[in-house]
Amino acid sequence: MYNGDRYRDDRYKDDCWNRPDSRPDYWEDCIPLRDHGPNPYVVNIKNATEQNYNYRVALWTGNYLQLTVMSIDPGDDIGLEIHTDHDQFIRIEKGQGLVLMGDSRDQLYYRERVYEDYVIFIPAGKWHNLINTGCVPLKLYSIYAPPEHPHGTYQRTKDEANMYGY
Predict the structure, then answer these.
(1) Percentage of the chain surpassing pLDDT 70?
(2) What is the SS3 assignment for 64?
(3) Handedness of CA 124, 83, 100, 120 (dihedral sign)
(4) What letter would DSSP give residue 54?
(5) Half-sphere exposure of residue 32: CA atoms within 13 angstroms, side-chain side
(6) Residue 75 · residue 135 · CB < 8 Å
(7) What is the pLDDT of residues 51-74, one digit of tens each?
(8) Alpha carbon of 31 to those of 87, 103, 165: distances in Å?
(9) How far apart are CA 55 and CA 157, in angstroms?
(10) Nearest 10 degrees: Cα torsion 71, 10, 48, 149
């Protein structure tokens, strides 16, 4: 159905309609995926997260906090990691996954399934991983305090992130 300025129907809820080439209003609603910090910044985080098709992009990096958006392919994961000096917050905007956490890399005793609108709190010093168990890209955003990645981080693929050691 057309309401005069854009389409408003359920097709946008389907993944095949969320690609830039299939949404008539994509460029109108497009959020620049770049680091806007440390300047003041306001963003529709749901739209920014769902528009991201890159592995990881820092949207805002300050002195004490960082916001990144990520897209994890079906069957892939973030990768087993630990942050010894900071906590991490993750929110799932689209998709589903399995969270693993523990005190050592070979004892991930904490396991929880996560879905859209779930949040994950990762304490400093915990080994953790997030696996995409669905059939669509897992869209999430992550908040680190203090920042984990360099200002301006823009990684198109997981392989690119691994080349730089994160």
Answers:
(1) 82
(2) coil
(3) positive
(4) S
(5) 8
(6) no
(7) 999 999 999 999 999 999 999 999
(8) 27, 38, 27
(9) 5
(10) -20
Give the predicted TM-score (pTM) of the model. 0.81
CA 51/CA 45 separation, integer angstroms: 10
Contact 87, 121 (CB under 8 A): yes
> Distances from the Cα of 42 to the Cαs of 9, 60, 65, in angstroms?
27, 10, 15
Neighbours of 67 (CB within 10 A): 24
Could you give the CA distance from residue 141 to residue 89 in angstroms, rounded to a whole number?
8
Indicate the SS3 state at residue 16. helix
Q: What is the Cα–Cα distance from 141 to 119, expressed in whole angstroms?
A: 10
Phi and psi (nearest 5°) for 53?
-115, 10
- For 47, the enclosing helix (H) or strand (E) is helix 45-51
Contact 68, 57 (CB under 8 A): yes
Preceding amide of 123 cis, omega within 30: no
C-alpha radius of gyration, the chain, whole number: 17
What is the token pair recorded at 44?
């529709």
DSSP, collapsed to helix, strand or coil, labels residue 18 as coil
